[in-house]
Design brief:
The complex is a heterodimer of chains A (255) and B (299). By secondary structure, chain A is of the alpha/beta class. Chain A is built from 10 helices and 10 strands. Classes of the chains: A alpha/beta (255), B mainly alpha (299). At the A-B interface, helix 2, strand 6 and helix 5 of A face helix 8, helix 9 and helix 15 of B. Bound molecules: adenosine-5'-diphosphate and magnesium ion.
């Protein structure tokens, strides 16, 4: 993979981010650092601030304080260079939108295209390559909403690949993905990591975490724990974040 | 061949008249421009915004007539002005956007009504409200053509960005394309488009022109390019049908054009092979539905 702009810098670095929506405190002094070539799992219940942290990293919400650096660059520069790929939460996408899978993947290239965003041969090549890598070539003409849950995720990963992103932010990549496709998505994400890309993914389903993530952060408005997945997923820690109602499913959380 | 002659005459006889030819030109041009924009309006969900912008131009049109300025000028100023006002109030108050839109456009419309009644001279309120396509002047036509060309030109250059904005503005932002700018562009295009259609169907019905063709096409296809083509097709057929029907039946032209569009929508709604209520193929269960079920079950 392409080298980071500053090889020594963390791929994702958030320092002391605090975010309010009106009176609601969504993030409280959150710090996070992910080294290049790692998969970091962002764990937390619904409403724990995972999506807000992504939006903060993307510069979409204004933090009251704190700063974000990506590959040693400030956010705006990293975005302009197309270094940040974003895979949206399923609820955020209009699945009835009349675009084909190939159209969606092509949108990954727009930042590098001319005024009219007319695809050049290099853009088409990048798109075909990304489709191949995500095993979607045969489905390229399908409407995006006509894909299965796992295929949809792969389509957005393909968009990030076509873009040439070094850092991928994946919001709930396993929500709405059936068990069978989960393995395909996991394998794809691991390959991307092995090529040197950095992945930050959020999930409220902890089953995937130990085998996929190199490290994990437990979020509940603030960072409750961070470290190796098995440390973070210790029952006491998880209890604090997920509350009492997970008790019955204890074994699943801890493996 | 009597039937054929009758059909030919139905079109040919009115075409002898200059005012019919002009009306047809204006209706078709306005229809096409509105139809193009309506595809993005449908996808972004801006029908209320279309309604707002069209009503908000009233004071601008009235003032233009009062001061003898081109009607498009006043309409543009008030159209874009109220869009900006909606944006400002929305960002700086806790009132939700639809309420802000409702307040701003009715206030503007009321201002227009007051202005008309204060200056009862030559301005004919019903022409502004309901269109006066049979009485368009050369100046009006020139303005309409220029503005239509501007809208179509800008769309031709930026259509992929507009679709990007409609589909995923977070991604746009993530790759360094400013979604706020694209939103402003789309709103600006809407304001100009409303002005183009004003003379054809009047303030009250403009919103139909910027929603119905796109919504109709949306029921008929899953491809954006086809949606554009179908939308334009629907608008052209409706414009022609509406103008000729209104001539023969001696009824409102704007009303006829919009009714023709609404008929197309109703047909698509009922019989579209893809998404029509009656025509739909047996629905496969959508992955979205099953996915949602699973993730709720898992929490
Ligand atoms: N746009 C918003 N306006 C107001 N509150 C919000 C908004 N988005 C999120 N929140 C609130 O912020 C908190 C964190 O939400 P979110 O980041 O979406 O959590 P998660 O992605 O972990 O489910 C929640 O309490 C949520 O209700
Ligand atoms: Mg979320």
């Amino acid at each position: 993979m392409t080298a980071a702009a500053h090889p020594a810098a963390p791929a994702v670095e958030v320092v002391d981010a605090t975010v309010h929506y009106g009176d609601v405190l969504a993030l409280d002094g959150v710090s996070l650092s992910v080294q290049p070539g790692r998969i970091c799992g962002l764990l937390g219940t619904n409403g724990s601030g995972k999506s807000t942290l992504f939006k903060t990293i993307l510069g979409l919400v204004r933090a009251d304080r704190g700063r974000v650096r990506l590959l040693g660059l400030d956010g705006a520069t990293a975005r302009r260079k197309g270094l940040v790929g974003y895979v949206p939460q399923a609820e955020q996408v209009d699945w009835d939108f009349p675009v084909s899978v190939r159209d969606v993947v092509m949108m990954g290239r727009y930042g590098q295209m001319g005024l009219r965003r007319r695809p050049r041969p290099a853009d088409r090549e990048a798109v075909e390559h990304a489709l191949e890598r995500t095993d979607l070539t045969g489905l390229a003409e399908r409407r995006i909403g006509a894909l299965s849950g796992g295929q949809r995720k792969r389509a957005f990963v393909a968009r990030a690949l076509a873009q040439g992103a070094d850092v991928l932010l994946l919001d709930e990549p396993f929500a709405g993905v059936d068990k069978g496709s989960e393995a395909t998505v996991t394998a794809l994400l691991r390959r991307l990591r092995d090529e040197g890309r950095t992945l930050l993914l959020s999930t409220h389903d902890l089953a995937q975490v130990p085998e996929l993530c190199d490290e994990a952060v437990l979020l509940q408005r603030r960072v409750i724990a961070r470290g190796a997945p098995d440390e973070v997923l210790r029952p006491e820690t998880v209890m604090e974040a997920f509350g009492v109602h997970v008790q019955g499913e204890g074994e699943r959380w801890t493996h | 061949m009597d039937a054929l002659t009758a059909v030919v005459d139905w079109f040919a006889v009115p075409m002898q008249f200059d005012f019919v030819r002009r009306a047809l030109l204006v209706a078709v041009v306005a229809g096409v421009v509105c139809a193009v924009l309506s595809c993005w309006m449908t996808l972004v969900g801006w029908s209320l915004m279309g309604d707002a912008v069209s009503h908000a131009v009233l004071p601008g049109v009235v003032l233009s007539y009062m001061f003898g300025l081109p009607f498009a000028l006043g309409a543009l100023v008030f159209g874009t002005g109220s869009v900006a006002l909606i944006g400002v109030v929305n960002r700086t108050s806790r009132v939700k956007e639809d309420a802000v839109i409702g307040v701003v456009f009715t206030a503007m419309f009321a201002l227009g009504l007051v202005l008309v009644s204060a200056v009862p001279s030559q301005t004919d309120l019903s022409h502004i409200l309901f269109g006066n396509v049979l009485g368009v002047s050369d100046t009006d036509i020139r303005q309409i053509l220029v503005l239509a060309a501007v809208v179509l030109g800008v769309v031709w250059v930026k259509h992929r960005d507009l679709t990007l904005y409609a589909f995923d503005r977070v991604h746009a932002h993530a790759i360094g394309i400013n979604p706020r700018l694209l939103e402003t562009l789309l709103l600006g295009l809407l304001a100009v488009t409303v002005v183009v259609a004003l003379q054809a169907v009047g303030i009250i019905l403009v919103v139909a022109m910027v929603i119905i063709p796109g919504a109709t096409a949306y029921l008929l296809t899953d491809r954006f390019e086809r949606m554009l083509a179908i939308s334009v097709g629907v608008a052209v057929v409706a414009a022609v049908t509406g103008v000729f029907a209104s001539y023969h039946l001696n009824v409102s032209t704007g009303g006829s054009v919009v009714l023709a569009q609404a008929t197309a929508f109703a047909l698509a709604y009922l019989f579209s092979p893809l998404h029509g209520v009656l025509g739909r193929r047996r629905r496969r269960p959508t992955p979205a539905a099953t996915a949602a079920d699973q993730s709720t079950a898992r929490q």
